[in-house]
Amino acid sequence: MVLIGTVAAGGCGFGPGESEPGEASLRVTRDFGSELMVEASLTDPTESDSVTRFLDENAEIETSYGGNFVDSIDGVAGSTVQGGGEDWFFFVNGYYSEIGAGETRVHAGDRVWWDYRDWQQAYRVPAVVGSFPEPFLHGESGGPAPTVTLECVGAAGQGDPCDTVVGALEGAGVDAERRDLDEPEVDGDSLRILVGEWSDLRADPAASQLEDDPSTSGVYATVAACGTGGEDDYRLDVLGADAKPRLELSDAGFVAALRHREDPPTWVVAGTTPEAVGRAAALVGEETLQDRYAVAAGPSGEPIPMPAPDEVAVADEGASTCA
Amino acid sequence: MRLTAPLAYAPRRGPLGAARPWIAAAFLMPLAVVAFTFANPIVLLAAGAAALIAGAGSGAGASVRGPLRWSIGLGVMVIAVNAIASQRGATILWRGWDLPVLGQIDVSLEALVEGAVLALRIIVALLVFSVWSACVDPDRILRAIRPIAARSALTATLIARLVPLAAADAARLEEAGRLRGPAAAPVGKAAIARRLVAGALDRSVDVAATLELRGYGLGVRSRMPRHRRVAGEITLLLCGLLSLALVIAAAAAGVGGFDAYPTVAADTDAATFALAGAIVALSWLPFAVESLRLRRRPRVAVGEAVRVG
């Protein structure tokens, strides 16, 4: 009887276990989300449904370590099989998973995203925007309901840009607390969305990583000072998968997800100029952000995926778009 | 009381026991290839049956039974470990704990089946090896390898000869211990091992002296006796080559496919059964031909006079 009680109390039992009402989704892409390979859903996931099992039922996979590590999906193999610097990584609700796919349980509402990419410049990408409106709807998979704080920072961040982001969040069913601030406030317990001009946001410990290379921030872009004398003149360098600059934009808005240590992800909706903040806010939407690690918009407002596609030529090092 | 090790070679009847080592290898190798390349249970069971037929046909049934028992025990362990270690499979039978390092322990039907297939592959490979070990004369192997790697061949043959000798010595020591009477304290394994190790040096000196008498190390090449072709070798060789060709062709053509995940899918079509049947038939054929040949051989009655001149 003691044994039975222990087994029952430990959540063990026969069969797959109880199911959660709801649907989980799966997307499998390659090359930083540029090509969709598999799209599927799972209705009412059970306690035994893991990311590996979810993937296994919708694609031909090869695994190792008992199914915890995925070597190949539909014939596209990672470095453990064929060498090289490309592998499969997966995110759940926009969070990079630190544990194996076989141990990661799938919950109702989860958005599972597998992407095959070059990892040589940035092995760890802790958060991505491509599963919007996650993580704001369900938070980390299996975790408590998230608290979402929308920080509208500075003159450029408040007003229309912030209203645009509020509208996008409300349209996606996200309940966020809006705060108009002069400077970002660090909160280790809630998911934050910072809206504002880069000069107002760069002091934030999560956002400041964008002034480092992708191996630190996980974002294939850097923000650098123009060095033209103006304190608030910044330039967005959109990088390729090889971390080489492809576009240098002095007037650009962007949306990127970062993590400072083990804090929840912080989204940065920023512009290098006050006008660009509005363009950045307009990028916030499921259609624009789907399957993207981060997105930028130049003066035309057209979305530019980050990293930039290979067909975009490497920028001339001598030239600068800084005014 | 066992005086020989389970895998010890002994002269056997039948074509496999009399054939040259390379022909025996050509006959048995396809079965090992099946064990390493196929996962379909029908094909694996056929290879296992073929190995058992070869063993029984050579009078090595008892030599094969021991390894079969060990391998079944090993196979049960493989099934159990795979069931716990594998995180795949759509049909969850039992949902276990979430343990550190190991993660979620679920047992799926597919993981059990995969484990069973792995166990079957191990069993078939061990069966093939045990038939080889029981039926093929290690001295003939030495003679065959000597032109290529003389010292390695000699070392391997000495080991093959001395291991069963050590097993026989251990059995004799145990028997001697029992003969001391019921009042005597039982002889422990450590004591027997110590005596065996002490005796190993004596054995080594004896073997070295024998080899010296036979001319090893003198640098003089001895003349190898000409091999007389044995009846049944051609059939054995042809069956082995045909079996190998069939196995390779079937593997290339995707016959006998098997997938454990996400749900079990095994080929059970005519081609798979035909392959399995062919493997068994080609293993049985040399022994059937030999049996037929022996039945047709004219018999001479005891006491019957033989006319001369």
Strand order of the largest sheet of chain A: 11-10-12-17-16-18-19
Could you report the average pLDDT of chain B, rounded to the nearest whole number? 84
Instruction: Compute the separation of the termini of chain B in Å.
Output: 53 Å
Distance between the termini of chain A: 77 Å
CATH architect. name of the largest domain in chain A: 2-Layer Sandwich
Question: How many alpha or pi helices of chain A?
Answer: 9
* SS strand fraction of chain B: 5-15%
Q: What is the topology, as strand order, of the major beta sheet of chain B?
A: 1-2
**N-to-C series of helices and strands of chain A:** HEEEHEEEHEEEEHHEEHHEEEEEHHEE
Quaternary organisation = heterodimer
Shape, per Cα inertia axes of chain B: globular
Beta percentage of chain A is 25-35%
Please explain how this structure is put together.
- The complex is a heterodimer of chains A (323) and B (309).
- Chain A has 323 residues and is α+β, with helices and mostly antiparallel strands.
- Chain A folds into 2 domains: 23-118, Beta Complex (Ferric Hydroxamate Uptake Protein, Chain A, domain 1); 148-306, 2-Layer Sandwich (Chitobiase, domain 2), CATH 3.30.379.
- Helix content of chain A is 17%, strand content 32%.
- Chain A is built from 9 helices and 19 strands.
- In chain A, a hairpin with a 4-residue loop joins strand 4 and strand 5.
- In chain A, helix 5 runs parallel beside helix 8.
- The mean pLDDT of chain A is 91.
- Chain B is mainly alpha-helical and 309 residues long.
- Chain B has a domain at 14-136 and 232-296.
- In chain B, 65% of the residues lie in helices and 6% in strands.
- Chain B has 10 helices and 4 strands, in the order H-H-H-H-E-E-H-H-H-H-H-E-E-H.
- Chain B has a two-stranded antiparallel ribbon with strand order 1-2. In chain B, strands 3-4 form a two-stranded antiparallel ribbon.
- The longest helix of chain B is centred in the middle third of the chain and has 29 residues, at 150-178.
- Chain B is globular, with a radius of gyration of 25 Å.
